[in-house]
Amino acid sequence: MKKNLAEFIGTFWLVLGGCGSAVLAAAFPEVGIGLAGVALAFGLTVLTIAYSLGHISGAHLNPAVTIGLWAGGRVKGSTILPYIISQVLGGIAAAAVLYIIATGNGSDIGSFAANGYGEHSPGGYSLTAAIVTEFVMTFMFLIVILGATDEKAPQGFAGVAIGLALTLIHLISIPVTNTSVNPARSISQAVFVGDWALSQLWVFILIPVLGAIAAGAVYKYLGK
Q1: Which helix (H) or strand (E) holds 130?
Q2: Which end of the chain is less packed: N or C, by CB atoms within 10 Å?
Q3: Which of 142, 108, 165, 162 is closest to 214 using CA atoms?
Q4: Contact 193/114 with Cβ under 8 angstroms?
Q5: How many distinct structural domains can be found in the chain?
Q6: Splitting the chain (224 residues) into consecutive groups of 10 residues, what average pLDDT does each group show?
Q7: CATH code, 94
């Protein structure tokens, strides 16, 4: 139960910090943080939770990470469902808080940092581009996670490597899909946007999971 609660809180922080920076601060008149600021915010959420709650639950904060770690032989299958439920609920709770804040000045939530492709991609990128982007970015994210947390890796630095990897991923892919690589993050925003965000959500659930499984299998082979 403590591990599940840690995943709930950690994913709450990731969505509130990452999506919150995109919704509230990215384009704030004259002093907005821009895409680089949003990318850094996502990385900082993972970095801070890795060192504060990582010793409790492993700080997965992401269904794809949990499944990828299972594919890589790092966690038991019994961990998957409880962690995913906790992560999704944590993300939705954060989105609810963000919704209250974002509408506090009478504004509409707009796209609410939801993930999308085609006309809902920030750069107008196609479904194919979105699929390739989400698969490759999630694959590389899990390779970094599996490598940084390997018992053979330098100890104490995993959180830094993982946080910076997520920052880099966002720097690359925000223009394409608003960057998912995390089904819980995608679900949480789509629930409040509805409409197109829900209809496109399958991409941001399925593809990150497939990328994570592929990375788990590859790293398992590399680590033998």
Answers
A1: helix 127-148
A2: C
A3: 142
A4: yes
A5: 1
A6: 96 96 89 92 96 94 97 93 97 97 90 95 97 98 95 90 97 96 97 96 98 96 82
A7: 1.20.1080.10
